[in-house]
Write a structure and sequence with these properties.
Shape of chain A: flat
Strand content of chain B: under 5%
Number of strands of chain A: 2
Helix content of chain A: 55-70%
Oligomer: heterodimer
Structural class of chain B: mainly alpha
Number of helices of chain A: 10
Distance between the termini of chain B: 35 Å
Distance between the termini of chain A: 43 Å
Strand content of chain A: under 5%
Number of domains of chain A: 2
């Protein structure tokens, strides 16, 4: 259901917080670069990550999303970017295409591709528990981390419940596709109510089970998850920090600014 | 052994000390995410947003579970992004949906101590206004943040997110609340059943509603005007909207804290 790939690549073996740092560093660097040419080194880094972690399988799985996001971003920014003192190539009311808007749109499409690919790599190498572990390692309160993990765990349960209700309603001849838009939205009520009530029935049991195990206590928590920090972790963090510092310096000197 | 000093506290942050509220947060999040994934009625911007019946869930959960729905909507949106779109936009989406889950209950309770199941004209006006403010707050934060990241222009996304959230919640939320509210009250799981702390003084809540209303509707209007070029700040193109709308986002935050 999720994108996680059960492999043992070098990034899989890194500390969860280090994986989060790598993704964050790529996000920051891509965000700072408003010139297409400076997105290219990041695309190379992401491609290396995709290739060495096995994440290419998820990239193939999400290929339509990659194409749609890049094409839509290019199309939307081509029309909506308002270039100052640039000759218009085409105009329709407030929509305008110029050479600058096309260059800006191409940069944004590349930027989103880097974001999407970096996110895909992160999801490919990180389990839900590791994500919550990384967040709590970074200072997120335990209870919030627990709520995130519990939410992820409950999604397949409610998804299955919703599918069963849909199938049951369809067996009774219920047609979800009939009518106009408002009518179609309303037709989901017979699905949402039983799923919601099923969820509520779990609430008291879950809360009591948690309290019985000392969830209310403020003591330090113990965990089955332990991730020793290795030399690879240190090297990866240093490389990520160097990349971010480099892009911050370039941005500060105006090299990354769109012109 | 230390125990949490105030286990009955149910404010926006102190609710994390109440186990039932933590579980309700996870339930809200997983319901939202589980119903986001399978039920997509109509793509509005392919790869970015669709018309989804699940958009009514944060509103319904808000009016039932109070602040648990705010955190639940944020986490639920994050989970949705774990199925392919994880990136810096996930944080923006989580922030926008946080307000979408927070404001319906807070705005309703600022003016009424009755059950949020509208039947009279006065209740319907307040109900529709609560949904409009919450939808506008979500649209403002998402549109502003996504525009700042360079994903989609403000005017292309904000108005769609507002219409999407408002229409779906207006059609579905009253029907769902009518079916669910009594059952949740019997189960003793409404926020009104779990909270023991007194709400803020009424004048403070009125001030909060005024600030939030100015921030949301004013921010969307100013953002659209800046994006379409009818208002111009003496700065470059993309940053126009980012900087021009930022004060409204800060105002929204202050208003929400007063509620």
């Amino acid at each position: 259901m999720y994108l996680y790939l059960d492999e043992s690549s070098w990034l899989h073996r890194c500390h969860p917080l280090v994986r989060l740092v790598v993704a964050f560093a790529l996000f920051v660097a891509a965000f700072l670069a408003d010139r297409a040419v400076w997105q290219v080194p990041l695309l190379v880094v992401v491609a290396l990550l995709v290739g060495t972690t096995g994440a290419w399988r998820n990239v193939v799985r999400l290929r339509y999303l990659f194409v749609v996001v890049a094409v839509m971003t290019f199309a939307v920014w081509s029309l909506f970017y308002r270039a100052v003192d640039e000759p218009e190539l085409w105009r329709l009311g407030p929509l305008m295409v110029s050479e600058a808007s096309l260059r800006f749109a191409a940069t944004m499409a590349l930027k989103l591709t880097v974001f999407l690919a970096a996110g895909t790599v992160f999801l490919s190498v990180t389990r839900v528990e590791e994500f919550a572990f990384a967040l709590t390692s970074a200072g997120l309160p335990y209870r919030i981390g627990f709520a995130i993990t519990l939410s992820f765990r409950l999604v397949p349960v409610f998804l299955e419940s919703a599918r069963k209700v849909v199938e049951a309603q369809r067996c009774r001849g219920f047609d979800f596709e009939r009518g106009g838009l408002a009518e179609r939205v309303r037709r989901y009520v017979p699905v949402l109510v039983p799923v919601f009530m099923g969820a509520l029935r779990r609430t008291d049991g879950l809360a009591m089970a948690l309290d019985a195990r000392g969830f209310q206590l403020d003591e330090d928590r113990t965990s089955y998850l332990h991730y020793p920090v290795s030399s690879t972790d240190v090297e990866v963090v240093l490389a990520s920090a160097a990349m971010v510092v480099g892009y911050v310096v370039l941005s500060w000197r105006g090299v990354l600014t769109f012109v | 052994m230390r125990t949490a000093p105030d286990t009955q506290a149910t404010g926006l942050f102190s609710m994390w000390r109440n186990t039932r509220m933590v579980v309700l947060t996870a339930i809200s999040a997983s319901l939202f995410a589980a119903l986001l994934i399978p039920f997509k009625l109509l793509p509005l911007i392919p790869g970015v947003t669709e018309l989804r019946p699940a958009n009514a869930i944060p509103v319904v959960c808000s009016l039932l579970f109070g602040p648990a729905a705010a955190w639940g909507a944020a986490i639920g949106n994050l989970i949705g992004d774990f199925f392919g779109g994880f990136g810096p936009g996930a944080l923006v989406g989580a922030a926008g949906n946080f307000f979408y889950g927070l404001l319906p209950y807070r705005v309703w309770r600022a003016f009424s101590d009755e059950d949020p199941v509208p039947s009279t004209i006065r209740q319907w006006v307040l109900f529709v206004y609560s949904l409009a403010v919450a939808s506008a707050a979500c649209a403002l934060v998402v549109g502003w943040g996504i525009n700042a990241l360079g994903f989609v222009p403000f005017q292309a996304l904000t108005n769609i997110v507002f219409a999407n959230n408002f229409i779906v919640s207006l059609v579905l939320a009253p029907l769902l609340l009518r079916a669910l509210y009594g059952r949740v009250r019997v189960a003793g799981l409404r926020f009104d059943d779990l909270r023991t702390a007194a709400p803020r003084p009424r004048p403070m809540r009125y001030a909060g509603v005024v600030l939030v209303s100015i921030a949301t509707f004013g921010g969307i209007w100013v953002g659209n005007m800046l994006a379409l070029g009818y208002l111009v700040l003496p700065i470059e193109s993309v940053a126009q909207v980012t900087i021009g709308v930022a004060p409204f986002v800060v105002l929204l935050l202050i208003g929400a804290l007063l509620l």
